[in-house]
Amino acid sequence: MAEGERIPGTPRYRHSLQVHSGYEPFFPNFLLKEWIVGAVFLFAFALWIVFNPVDLGPKANPDDTTFIPIPDWYFLFLYQILKYYPGSQIVVGVVLVPLIGTLLLLFTPWLDVSTERHPYKRPLATAAMVLVTFLVIWLTNEARVQHLAETGQLSSNANLPQLKQVPASQIKFSNTNMPGYKLFESTCATCHGSKGEGHIGPPIYAIGHFWDENQLKGFVENPSGGMPPKGGLSSDKQVDQVVAWLVKQSHSGGGY
Amino acid sequence: MLKKAYDWIDERLNVTPLWRDVADHDVPPHVNPAIKMSAFIYCFGGLTFLVITTQILSGMFLAMYYTPDINNAWYSVKYIDDQVLLGQVVRGMHFWGASLVIVMMFLHMLRVFFTGAYKKPREMNWVVGVLIFFVVLAFGFTGYLLPWDQKAYWATSVGAQIAGSIPWIGPWIQTLLLGGHYVGALTLSRFFAIHVFFLPAALLVLLALHFIMIRTQHISGPL
Q1: ipTM metric
Q2: What's the gap in Å between the CA of A173 and the closest CA on chain B?
Q3: In terms of CA atoms, which chain A residue is nearest residue B79?
Q4: What's the CATH superfamily of B44-217?
Protein backbone atom coordinates (compact mmCIF):
# COMPACT_ATOMS: atom_id res chain seq x y z
CA MET A 1 0.00 0.00 0.00
CA ALA A 2 2.78 2.38 0.90
CA GLU A 3 4.32 1.61 -2.47
CA GLY A 4 2.52 4.09 -4.66
CA GLU A 5 2.41 6.79 -2.02
CA ARG A 6 3.70 10.28 -2.58
CA ILE A 7 5.43 12.09 0.23
CA PRO A 8 3.82 15.55 0.27
CA GLY A 9 6.20 18.24 -0.87
CA THR A 10 8.14 16.00 -3.27
CA PRO A 11 7.59 16.67 -6.97
CA ARG A 12 4.88 14.51 -8.49
CA TYR A 13 6.82 13.75 -11.67
CA ARG A 14 9.74 12.18 -9.81
CA HIS A 15 7.61 10.21 -7.44
CA SER A 16 7.51 7.05 -9.53
CA LEU A 17 11.30 7.00 -9.73
CA GLN A 18 11.76 6.76 -5.95
CA VAL A 19 12.58 3.45 -4.37
CA HIS A 20 10.15 3.04 -1.48
CA SER A 21 11.74 1.53 1.61
CA GLY A 22 8.57 1.29 3.63
CA TYR A 23 9.79 4.10 5.86
CA GLU A 24 7.59 7.15 5.83
CA PRO A 25 7.61 10.51 7.60
CA PHE A 26 5.68 10.74 10.85
CA PHE A 27 3.99 13.92 9.68
CA PRO A 28 1.77 13.97 7.80
CA ASN A 29 1.86 10.49 6.23
CA PHE A 30 1.92 8.25 9.26
CA LEU A 31 -0.07 10.56 11.50
CA LEU A 32 -2.87 10.62 8.93
CA LYS A 33 -3.15 6.82 9.13
CA GLU A 34 -3.05 6.94 12.89
CA TRP A 35 -5.88 9.46 12.77
CA ILE A 36 -7.91 7.08 10.63
CA VAL A 37 -7.38 4.27 13.15
CA GLY A 38 -8.19 6.72 15.95
CA ALA A 39 -11.35 7.92 14.21
CA VAL A 40 -12.66 4.37 13.76
CA PHE A 41 -11.79 3.62 17.37
CA LEU A 42 -13.50 6.78 18.66
CA PHE A 43 -16.59 6.04 16.57
CA ALA A 44 -16.90 2.57 18.12
CA PHE A 45 -16.33 4.13 21.55
CA ALA A 46 -19.05 6.75 20.92
CA LEU A 47 -21.51 4.05 19.85
CA TRP A 48 -20.76 2.09 23.01
CA ILE A 49 -21.37 5.19 25.16
CA VAL A 50 -24.68 5.99 23.50
CA PHE A 51 -26.01 2.45 23.95
CA ASN A 52 -24.68 1.97 27.49
CA PRO A 53 -25.79 4.95 29.56
CA VAL A 54 -24.21 5.12 33.01
CA ASP A 55 -26.64 4.89 35.88
CA LEU A 56 -26.23 6.78 39.11
CA GLY A 57 -26.97 4.71 42.21
CA PRO A 58 -28.89 6.00 45.22
CA LYS A 59 -27.17 8.79 47.16
CA ALA A 60 -24.51 7.66 49.65
CA ASN A 61 -26.05 6.71 52.98
CA PRO A 62 -23.50 6.01 55.74
CA ASP A 63 -26.25 4.51 57.93
CA ASP A 64 -27.19 1.77 55.46
CA THR A 65 -24.76 -0.98 56.36
CA THR A 66 -26.60 -3.62 54.32
CA PHE A 67 -25.07 -2.42 51.05
CA ILE A 68 -22.65 -5.00 49.62
CA PRO A 69 -19.83 -2.97 48.04
CA ILE A 70 -17.60 -3.97 45.17
CA PRO A 71 -14.57 -2.13 43.78
CA ASP A 72 -14.40 -1.11 40.14
CA TRP A 73 -13.66 -4.11 37.90
CA TYR A 74 -9.95 -3.40 37.40
CA PHE A 75 -9.32 -3.72 41.15
CA LEU A 76 -11.22 -7.00 41.44
CA PHE A 77 -8.17 -9.26 41.04
CA LEU A 78 -6.45 -7.51 43.96
CA TYR A 79 -9.69 -7.68 45.96
CA GLN A 80 -10.01 -11.40 45.22
CA ILE A 81 -6.44 -12.11 46.41
CA LEU A 82 -7.39 -10.65 49.81
CA LYS A 83 -10.10 -13.27 50.25
CA TYR A 84 -7.57 -16.10 50.15
CA TYR A 85 -5.67 -14.72 53.15
CA PRO A 86 -8.24 -14.22 55.91
CA GLY A 87 -7.64 -13.19 59.51
CA SER A 88 -4.05 -12.88 60.64
CA GLN A 89 -2.73 -13.78 57.18
CA ILE A 90 -4.21 -10.58 55.78
CA VAL A 91 -0.77 -9.00 55.52
CA VAL A 92 0.07 -11.49 52.76
CA GLY A 93 -2.86 -10.35 50.63
CA VAL A 94 -2.63 -6.64 51.43
CA VAL A 95 1.13 -6.11 51.34
CA LEU A 96 3.19 -9.10 50.28
CA VAL A 97 1.50 -10.27 47.06
CA PRO A 98 0.90 -6.75 45.62
CA LEU A 99 4.42 -5.69 46.60
CA ILE A 100 6.04 -8.68 44.91
CA GLY A 101 3.87 -8.13 41.83
CA THR A 102 4.80 -4.45 41.69
CA LEU A 103 8.51 -5.12 42.07
CA LEU A 104 8.48 -7.87 39.44
CA LEU A 105 6.71 -5.55 37.02
CA LEU A 106 8.98 -2.56 37.72
CA PHE A 107 12.20 -4.54 37.43
CA THR A 108 11.21 -6.70 34.45
CA PRO A 109 14.04 -5.25 32.29
CA TRP A 110 16.62 -6.34 34.88
CA LEU A 111 15.08 -9.78 35.42
CA ASP A 112 14.87 -10.71 31.75
CA VAL A 113 18.37 -9.69 30.72
CA SER A 114 18.98 -11.81 27.63
CA THR A 115 19.36 -9.87 24.40
CA GLU A 116 16.76 -12.07 22.69
CA ARG A 117 13.53 -10.22 21.98
CA HIS A 118 11.34 -12.80 20.27
CA PRO A 119 8.85 -14.26 22.78
CA TYR A 120 9.63 -17.85 21.71
CA LYS A 121 13.33 -17.35 22.40
CA ARG A 122 12.79 -16.40 26.04
CA PRO A 123 10.26 -19.01 27.13
CA LEU A 124 10.50 -18.31 30.86
CA ALA A 125 9.53 -14.63 30.59
CA THR A 126 6.81 -15.38 28.04
CA ALA A 127 5.32 -18.25 30.08
CA ALA A 128 5.39 -16.12 33.25
CA MET A 129 3.52 -13.26 31.58
CA VAL A 130 0.96 -15.56 29.96
CA LEU A 131 0.37 -17.20 33.33
CA VAL A 132 -0.01 -13.87 35.14
CA THR A 133 -2.41 -12.61 32.48
CA PHE A 134 -4.62 -15.67 32.78
CA LEU A 135 -4.44 -15.53 36.58
CA VAL A 136 -5.53 -11.86 36.63
CA ILE A 137 -8.42 -12.60 34.27
CA TRP A 138 -9.47 -15.65 36.29
CA LEU A 139 -9.28 -13.78 39.62
CA THR A 140 -11.32 -10.90 38.17
CA ASN A 141 -14.02 -13.27 36.98
CA GLU A 142 -14.00 -15.19 40.27
CA ALA A 143 -14.53 -11.95 42.23
CA ARG A 144 -17.37 -10.97 39.89
CA VAL A 145 -19.12 -14.34 40.20
CA GLN A 146 -18.78 -14.34 43.99
CA HIS A 147 -20.17 -10.81 44.19
CA LEU A 148 -23.15 -11.78 42.05
CA ALA A 149 -23.77 -14.79 44.29
CA GLU A 150 -23.58 -12.57 47.39
CA THR A 151 -26.07 -10.07 46.01
CA GLY A 152 -28.31 -12.85 44.68
CA GLN A 153 -28.00 -11.93 40.99
CA LEU A 154 -26.50 -15.22 39.89
CA SER A 155 -28.20 -17.04 37.06
CA SER A 156 -28.89 -20.08 39.28
CA ASN A 157 -31.43 -17.89 41.04
CA ALA A 158 -33.39 -17.87 37.80
CA ASN A 159 -34.72 -21.27 38.99
CA LEU A 160 -36.30 -19.57 41.98
CA PRO A 161 -39.97 -18.59 41.67
CA GLN A 162 -40.37 -15.18 40.07
CA LEU A 163 -43.45 -13.42 41.47
CA LYS A 164 -44.93 -10.41 39.75
CA GLN A 165 -44.42 -7.05 41.47
CA VAL A 166 -47.78 -5.92 42.81
CA PRO A 167 -48.66 -3.07 45.19
CA ALA A 168 -48.98 -4.19 48.83
CA SER A 169 -52.57 -2.89 48.91
CA GLN A 170 -53.68 -5.57 46.42
CA ILE A 171 -52.33 -8.44 48.52
CA LYS A 172 -54.71 -10.27 50.88
CA PHE A 173 -53.19 -12.86 53.19
CA SER A 174 -55.24 -15.83 54.38
CA ASN A 175 -55.10 -17.74 57.69
CA THR A 176 -53.67 -14.72 59.54
CA ASN A 177 -54.70 -16.30 62.85
CA MET A 178 -51.91 -18.90 62.56
CA PRO A 179 -48.79 -18.45 64.72
CA GLY A 180 -46.61 -18.42 61.57
CA TYR A 181 -48.15 -15.09 60.50
CA LYS A 182 -47.03 -13.36 63.71
CA LEU A 183 -43.48 -14.63 63.10
CA PHE A 184 -43.67 -13.51 59.46
CA GLU A 185 -44.64 -10.00 60.52
CA SER A 186 -41.86 -9.70 63.08
CA THR A 187 -39.06 -11.32 61.04
CA CYS A 188 -39.55 -12.03 57.34
CA ALA A 189 -41.45 -8.79 56.66
CA THR A 190 -38.32 -6.73 57.36
CA CYS A 191 -36.89 -7.80 54.01
CA HIS A 192 -39.86 -9.14 52.07
CA GLY A 193 -42.31 -6.38 53.02
CA SER A 194 -45.25 -6.50 55.44
CA LYS A 195 -47.45 -7.99 52.69
CA GLY A 196 -44.64 -10.06 51.17
CA GLU A 197 -44.63 -7.63 48.25
CA GLY A 198 -40.83 -7.59 48.12
CA HIS A 199 -38.41 -5.02 49.52
CA ILE A 200 -34.76 -6.03 49.98
CA GLY A 201 -35.76 -9.61 49.37
CA PRO A 202 -37.95 -10.69 46.44
CA PRO A 203 -41.78 -10.79 46.54
CA ILE A 204 -43.11 -13.97 48.22
CA TYR A 205 -46.79 -13.10 48.73
CA ALA A 206 -47.97 -16.19 46.77
CA ILE A 207 -45.01 -18.47 47.30
CA GLY A 208 -47.32 -21.38 48.23
CA HIS A 209 -48.39 -21.56 44.59
CA PHE A 210 -44.81 -22.45 43.53
CA TRP A 211 -43.37 -24.42 46.44
CA ASP A 212 -44.68 -27.11 48.76
CA GLU A 213 -43.83 -27.33 52.44
CA ASN A 214 -40.62 -29.34 51.94
CA GLN A 215 -39.22 -27.06 49.24
CA LEU A 216 -39.98 -23.98 51.33
CA LYS A 217 -38.41 -25.50 54.42
CA GLY A 218 -35.34 -26.58 52.47
CA PHE A 219 -34.81 -23.09 51.13
CA VAL A 220 -35.40 -21.24 54.40
CA GLU A 221 -32.93 -23.48 56.24
CA ASN A 222 -30.29 -23.15 53.56
CA PRO A 223 -31.06 -19.98 51.60
CA SER A 224 -29.20 -18.17 48.81
CA GLY A 225 -29.00 -14.59 47.64
CA GLY A 226 -28.05 -12.88 50.88
CA MET A 227 -30.95 -14.24 52.98
CA PRO A 228 -29.72 -15.25 56.44
CA PRO A 229 -29.98 -18.96 57.42
CA LYS A 230 -33.46 -19.80 58.74
CA GLY A 231 -34.43 -16.34 57.50
CA GLY A 232 -33.29 -14.91 60.83
CA LEU A 233 -35.66 -17.10 62.86
CA SER A 234 -34.25 -18.49 66.08
CA SER A 235 -35.46 -22.12 66.12
CA ASP A 236 -36.50 -24.97 63.83
CA LYS A 237 -39.95 -24.86 65.42
CA GLN A 238 -40.38 -21.25 64.31
CA VAL A 239 -39.28 -22.18 60.79
CA ASP A 240 -41.92 -24.93 60.73
CA GLN A 241 -44.63 -22.51 61.89
CA VAL A 242 -43.75 -19.86 59.30
CA VAL A 243 -43.51 -22.44 56.50
CA ALA A 244 -46.85 -23.97 57.53
CA TRP A 245 -48.46 -20.55 57.13
CA LEU A 246 -46.51 -19.45 54.03
CA VAL A 247 -47.47 -22.56 52.07
CA LYS A 248 -51.14 -21.56 52.41
CA GLN A 249 -50.45 -18.20 50.69
CA SER A 250 -51.06 -19.30 47.13
CA HIS A 251 -53.57 -16.85 45.70
CA SER A 252 -52.92 -13.60 47.50
CA GLY A 253 -53.38 -10.61 45.26
CA GLY A 254 -54.81 -12.74 42.49
CA GLY A 255 -51.75 -12.63 40.27
CA TYR A 256 -48.29 -14.08 40.39
CA MET B 1 -0.43 36.36 5.14
CA LEU B 2 -0.18 33.15 7.12
CA LYS B 3 3.33 32.63 5.87
CA LYS B 4 4.26 36.15 6.98
CA ALA B 5 2.84 35.55 10.46
CA TYR B 6 4.73 32.27 10.72
CA ASP B 7 8.00 33.90 9.58
CA TRP B 8 7.52 36.71 12.09
CA ILE B 9 7.21 34.21 14.95
CA ASP B 10 9.93 31.91 13.62
CA GLU B 11 12.39 34.79 13.32
CA ARG B 12 11.98 35.53 16.99
CA LEU B 13 11.44 32.08 18.55
CA ASN B 14 13.05 29.73 16.05
CA VAL B 15 10.16 27.25 16.21
CA THR B 16 10.93 25.43 12.96
CA PRO B 17 13.42 22.91 14.44
CA LEU B 18 10.90 22.01 17.16
CA TRP B 19 8.12 20.83 14.89
CA ARG B 20 10.45 19.57 12.15
CA ASP B 21 11.92 17.22 14.74
CA VAL B 22 8.48 15.77 15.44
CA ALA B 23 7.39 15.78 11.80
CA ASP B 24 10.49 14.59 10.00
CA HIS B 25 11.42 11.41 11.80
CA ASP B 26 10.76 8.34 9.72
CA VAL B 27 8.34 5.67 10.91
CA PRO B 28 9.71 2.19 10.15
CA PRO B 29 7.54 -0.21 8.10
CA HIS B 30 7.23 -2.89 10.78
CA VAL B 31 5.01 -0.67 12.96
CA ASN B 32 2.89 0.58 10.07
CA PRO B 33 -0.46 -1.24 9.87
CA ALA B 34 -0.96 0.16 6.35
CA ILE B 35 1.92 -2.03 5.19
CA LYS B 36 1.33 -5.07 7.34
CA MET B 37 -2.04 -5.45 9.03
CA SER B 38 -0.65 -7.29 12.05
CA ALA B 39 1.28 -4.16 12.97
CA PHE B 40 -1.96 -2.85 14.53
CA ILE B 41 -0.63 -4.07 17.87
CA TYR B 42 1.73 -1.09 17.75
CA CYS B 43 -1.31 1.22 17.84
CA PHE B 44 -2.31 0.35 21.40
CA GLY B 45 -0.01 2.91 23.01
CA GLY B 46 -1.21 5.69 20.74
CA LEU B 47 -4.84 4.71 21.32
CA THR B 48 -4.24 4.77 25.09
CA PHE B 49 -3.02 8.34 24.69
CA LEU B 50 -6.07 9.16 22.56
CA VAL B 51 -8.42 7.88 25.27
CA ILE B 52 -6.45 9.76 27.94
CA THR B 53 -6.96 12.91 25.85
CA THR B 54 -10.72 12.31 25.74
CA GLN B 55 -10.64 11.68 29.50
CA ILE B 56 -8.96 15.05 30.09
CA LEU B 57 -11.47 16.83 27.83
CA SER B 58 -14.58 15.14 29.24
CA GLY B 59 -13.22 15.66 32.77
CA MET B 60 -12.78 19.38 32.13
CA PHE B 61 -16.41 19.65 31.04
CA LEU B 62 -17.69 17.58 33.96
CA ALA B 63 -15.78 19.85 36.35
CA MET B 64 -17.92 22.77 35.13
CA TYR B 65 -20.97 21.24 36.84
CA TYR B 66 -19.61 18.89 39.49
CA THR B 67 -19.58 20.07 43.10
CA PRO B 68 -17.16 18.27 45.44
CA ASP B 69 -19.09 18.47 48.70
CA ILE B 70 -21.12 15.74 50.33
CA ASN B 71 -24.45 17.57 50.22
CA ASN B 72 -24.34 18.49 46.56
CA ALA B 73 -22.03 16.01 44.83
CA TRP B 74 -24.69 13.41 44.11
CA TYR B 75 -27.24 16.07 43.03
CA SER B 76 -24.69 17.72 40.75
CA VAL B 77 -24.01 14.38 39.04
CA LYS B 78 -27.76 13.81 38.73
CA TYR B 79 -28.07 17.30 37.26
CA ILE B 80 -25.35 16.47 34.71
CA ASP B 81 -27.23 13.30 33.79
CA ASP B 82 -30.74 14.73 33.60
CA GLN B 83 -30.49 18.43 32.79
CA VAL B 84 -27.20 19.33 31.12
CA LEU B 85 -27.11 19.22 27.32
CA LEU B 86 -25.20 16.03 26.38
CA GLY B 87 -24.34 15.65 30.06
CA GLN B 88 -25.26 11.97 29.99
CA VAL B 89 -22.92 11.46 27.01
CA VAL B 90 -19.99 13.35 28.53
CA ARG B 91 -20.34 11.46 31.81
CA GLY B 92 -20.63 8.22 29.84
CA MET B 93 -17.44 9.12 28.02
CA HIS B 94 -15.60 9.73 31.28
CA PHE B 95 -17.01 6.59 32.93
CA TRP B 96 -16.38 4.16 30.06
CA GLY B 97 -13.16 5.95 29.08
CA ALA B 98 -11.73 5.10 32.51
CA SER B 99 -12.20 1.40 31.79
CA LEU B 100 -10.99 1.80 28.23
CA VAL B 101 -7.72 3.44 29.35
CA ILE B 102 -7.05 0.44 31.58
CA VAL B 103 -7.86 -2.04 28.80
CA MET B 104 -5.76 -0.28 26.15
CA MET B 105 -2.89 0.27 28.58
CA PHE B 106 -2.93 -3.41 29.52
CA LEU B 107 -2.85 -4.42 25.83
CA HIS B 108 -0.03 -1.92 25.21
CA MET B 109 1.92 -3.39 28.11
CA LEU B 110 1.42 -6.93 26.79
CA ARG B 111 2.64 -5.83 23.34
CA VAL B 112 5.75 -4.20 24.83
CA PHE B 113 6.39 -7.25 26.97
CA PHE B 114 5.97 -9.90 24.28
CA THR B 115 8.03 -7.99 21.72
CA GLY B 116 10.78 -7.51 24.31
CA ALA B 117 10.73 -3.77 23.66
CA TYR B 118 11.75 -3.00 27.25
CA LYS B 119 15.25 -4.35 26.72
CA LYS B 120 18.37 -2.22 26.61
CA PRO B 121 18.39 0.75 26.01
CA ARG B 122 14.68 1.17 26.87
CA GLU B 123 14.61 -0.06 30.48
CA MET B 124 13.83 3.38 31.91
CA ASN B 125 10.91 3.88 29.59
CA TRP B 126 9.38 0.60 30.83
CA VAL B 127 9.71 1.83 34.42
CA VAL B 128 8.02 5.13 33.52
CA GLY B 129 5.26 3.12 31.81
CA VAL B 130 4.68 1.07 34.96
CA LEU B 131 4.48 4.31 36.97
CA ILE B 132 1.89 5.61 34.50
CA PHE B 133 -0.06 2.40 35.11
CA PHE B 134 -0.13 3.07 38.86
CA VAL B 135 -1.11 6.71 38.36
CA VAL B 136 -4.02 5.57 36.17
CA LEU B 137 -5.12 3.08 38.84
CA ALA B 138 -5.03 5.93 41.37
CA PHE B 139 -7.22 7.95 38.98
CA GLY B 140 -9.69 5.06 39.00
CA PHE B 141 -9.71 4.74 42.77
CA THR B 142 -10.23 8.45 43.47
CA GLY B 143 -12.70 8.93 40.63
CA TYR B 144 -14.92 6.07 41.83
CA LEU B 145 -15.89 8.07 44.96
CA LEU B 146 -16.82 11.33 43.25
CA PRO B 147 -20.44 10.53 42.19
CA TRP B 148 -21.10 9.98 45.94
CA ASP B 149 -23.61 7.21 45.44
CA GLN B 150 -23.92 4.10 47.62
CA LYS B 151 -21.55 2.10 45.42
CA ALA B 152 -18.91 4.82 45.59
CA TYR B 153 -19.23 5.40 49.32
CA TRP B 154 -19.01 1.77 50.41
CA ALA B 155 -16.31 0.77 47.94
CA THR B 156 -14.12 3.59 49.24
CA SER B 157 -14.90 2.62 52.85
CA VAL B 158 -13.77 -0.93 52.14
CA GLY B 159 -10.72 0.30 50.24
CA ALA B 160 -9.73 2.48 53.19
CA GLN B 161 -10.26 -0.42 55.60
CA ILE B 162 -7.97 -2.57 53.49
CA ALA B 163 -5.33 0.18 53.51
CA GLY B 164 -5.83 0.41 57.28
CA SER B 165 -5.01 -3.26 57.73
CA ILE B 166 -1.42 -2.79 56.53
CA PRO B 167 0.80 -3.47 59.55
CA TRP B 168 2.28 -0.47 61.44
CA ILE B 169 1.68 2.27 58.87
CA GLY B 170 -1.86 1.18 57.89
CA PRO B 171 -3.81 3.49 60.23
CA TRP B 172 -1.71 6.44 59.12
CA ILE B 173 -2.33 5.71 55.45
CA GLN B 174 -6.03 5.35 56.20
CA THR B 175 -6.17 8.71 57.96
CA LEU B 176 -4.18 10.33 55.18
CA LEU B 177 -6.58 8.91 52.57
CA LEU B 178 -9.81 9.72 54.39
CA GLY B 179 -8.85 12.87 56.26
CA GLY B 180 -10.38 11.23 59.35
CA HIS B 181 -11.59 7.87 60.51
CA TYR B 182 -14.55 7.55 58.17
CA VAL B 183 -15.36 8.44 54.58
CA GLY B 184 -16.83 11.92 54.83
CA ALA B 185 -16.67 15.54 53.70
CA LEU B 186 -12.89 15.72 53.89
CA THR B 187 -12.48 12.48 51.97
CA LEU B 188 -14.57 13.73 49.08
CA SER B 189 -12.78 17.08 48.74
CA ARG B 190 -9.39 15.43 49.05
CA PHE B 191 -10.18 12.72 46.49
CA PHE B 192 -11.44 15.45 44.17
CA ALA B 193 -8.23 17.46 44.58
CA ILE B 194 -6.11 14.36 43.99
CA HIS B 195 -8.20 13.36 40.99
CA VAL B 196 -8.17 16.74 39.21
CA PHE B 197 -4.90 18.38 40.33
CA PHE B 198 -2.28 16.01 41.73
CA LEU B 199 -2.72 13.01 39.43
CA PRO B 200 -3.08 14.93 36.14
CA ALA B 201 0.14 16.80 36.96
CA ALA B 202 1.93 13.52 37.66
CA LEU B 203 0.43 11.90 34.57
CA LEU B 204 1.42 14.71 32.20
CA VAL B 205 5.02 14.73 33.48
CA LEU B 206 5.28 10.95 33.11
CA LEU B 207 3.69 10.98 29.66
CA ALA B 208 6.12 13.69 28.55
CA LEU B 209 9.02 11.57 29.77
CA HIS B 210 7.54 8.52 28.05
CA PHE B 211 7.27 10.31 24.68
CA ILE B 212 10.62 12.13 24.89
CA MET B 213 12.31 8.80 25.56
CA ILE B 214 10.59 7.22 22.55
CA ARG B 215 11.89 10.10 20.38
CA THR B 216 15.46 9.84 21.64
CA GLN B 217 15.60 6.02 21.65
CA HIS B 218 13.32 5.44 18.62
CA ILE B 219 10.86 2.58 18.26
CA SER B 220 12.47 -0.81 18.84
CA GLY B 221 13.38 -2.64 15.64
CA PRO B 222 11.52 -5.55 14.07
CA LEU B 223 11.65 -8.89 15.87
Answers
A1: 0.92
A2: 34
A3: A56
A4: Cytochrome Bc1 Complex; Chain C (1.20.810.10)
